[in-house]
Amino acid sequence: MEKIPMTPAGHEALAAELKKRSAEERPRIIAAISEARAHGDLSENAEYHAAKEQQSLNEGRIAELEDKLSRAEVIDVAKMSGSKVKFGATVTIVDEDTDEEKTYQIVGDMEADIAQGKISLSSPIARALIGKEEEDSVEVAAPGGARSYEILAVKYV
């Protein structure tokens, strides 16, 4: 069984989503199904079919969350240090062509959110950065073509 690396914050977020889906969504959907059943003929009951679809999606997500949480390897980034880029690192890079600076934290797949500056460990840019140090230059094969970046800083916060 393959372990899934994640930060404590990512683990907490998944656990909170699981709790909400199990304790709030599941009973709400069951109530909606019961109410729709009371309306009579199920073969032509759109409310019933919509509620059953919601139930299916919710149960699927619950199973996925339970699986991910059972295989989680929580890595406390605050206890990490070093100059090499690895899981949990917050890396500041500069595009060598445009001089645009970006800062990303390398996190697990389930907690990646580009809007918050968190990129997946399996993303092309993270894979290119892993193992490198400050002042190293990296080439990233991106969908829009190859890009070159220089690593300005590596922190573990």
TrEMBL record:
Keyword Protein biosynthesis: yes
Pfam hit, one: GreA_GreB
GO MF term set: DNA binding; RNA polymerase binding; translation elongation factor activity
Gene3D superfamilies registered for this protein in UniProt: Transcription elongation factor, GreA/GreB, C-terminal domain, Transcription elongation factor, GreA/GreB, N-terminal domain
Residue ranges of the region described as Disordered: 1-23
Keywords on record: DNA-binding, Elongation factor, Protein biosynthesis, Transcription, Transcription regulation
InterPro entries, per database record: GreA/GreB_C_sf, TF_GreA/GreB_CS, Tscrpt_elong_fac_GreA, Tscrpt_elong_fac_GreA/B, Tscrpt_elong_fac_GreA/B_C, Tscrpt_elong_fac_GreA/B_fam, Tscrpt_elong_fac_GreA/B_N, Tscrpt_elong_fac_GreA/B_N_sf
Sequence ranges assigned to domain Transcription elongation factor GreA/GreB C-terminal in this UniProt record: 83-156
Keyword flag NADP: no
GO biological process: DNA-templated transcription elongation; regulation of DNA-templated transcription elongation
Transcription elongation factor GreA/GreB N-terminal domain sequence ranges: 4-74
Family: Belongs to the GreA/GreB family.
HAMAP family: GreA_GreB
Cited function: Necessary for efficient RNA polymerase transcription elongation past template-encoded arresting sites. The arresting sites in DNA have the property of trapping a certain fraction of elongating RNA polymerases that pass through, resulting in locked ternary complexes. Cleavage of the nascent transcript by cleavage factors such as GreA or GreB allows the resumption of elongation from the new 3'terminus. GreA releases sequences of 2 to 3 nucleotides.
The protein's name in its UniProt record: Transcription elongation factor GreA
Organism of provenance: Cohaesibacter gelatinilyticus
